[in-house]
Input
Amino acid sequence: MRFEIGDTYRNRKQEYTVLEVKKGGLLLVRYSDGSVGQLHADVQCNIIENMAREKK
Output
């Protein structure tokens, strides 16, 4: 899975929009509550895939 700048995704906590893709697979994101943080892209990919599997 490839994260795109400006796209919105959801993990188990809340939605976030990717602001920047940094070296080392880090994502700079803005959460739906307006806060900003960093996430590991590989971990988020696993979470999104697991959430999709659970919906089936």
The chain has a mean pLDDT of 95. The longest strand covers residues 15-22. Helices lie at 41-55. Residues 16 and 34 are 9 Å apart (CA to CA).
